[in-house]
Design goal:
The chain is α+β, with helices and mostly antiparallel strands and 122 residues long. Helix content is 16%, strand content 32%. The chain contains 2 helices and 8 strands. The protein has helices at 2-5, 75-89; strands at 17-21, 26-29, 39-42, 47-53, 58-62, 68-70, 93-97, 100-105. The strands form 2 sheets. Strands 2-1-4-3 form a 4-stranded antiparallel sheet, with no helix packed on it. A hairpin with a 2-residue loop joins strand 7 (93-97) and strand 8 (100-105).
């Protein structure tokens, strides 16, 4: 997961994760967050609380530069922005749904088409 977060690129380029605790307070992590069901300390309540949810949102992150955005629940908007950046900059852009990597756009190896000598290429 370290390569997904971009640890080699510096601290200012890490993704952030929002968690909702059982006490309904939210906590933001810039490192790998705890799993749902684990207990962490809530500074507002001054006690240990269970992690209830991690609201999923679509995020994109470029592997070649600092470009990174979150789009809430707008998957189509995230895919459009990723495709635009990948097309303009020729970079690989990852699309995440919460913590899960959905797909990568751009920077794919070119496919070579081999045609039969007996058939035309159409």
């Amino acid at each position: 997961m370290a390569d997904i977060l971009g640890d080699a690129r510096g601290d200012d380029m890490k993704m952030t994760y929002t968690l909702i605790l059982a006490c309904k307070h939210t906590v933001i992590f810039s490192i790998a967050p705890p799993k749902i069901g684990e207990h962490i300390y809530c500074f507002k309540c001054q006690r240990l609380e269970r992690v209830n949810a991690a609201p999923a949102e679509y995020r994109i992150r470029c592997r070649g530069c600092r470009y990174s955005r979150s789009f809430g629940r707008g998957r189509l908007t995230a895919e459009t922005a990723a495709a635009a950046h990948a097309g303009k900059r020729r970079h690989a852009v990852d699309i995440f749904d919460g913590y899960d990597l959905l797909t990568t756009m751009g920077n794919r190896p070119a496919e070579t088409l081999i045609f039969d000598a007996d058939e035309p290429p159409f």
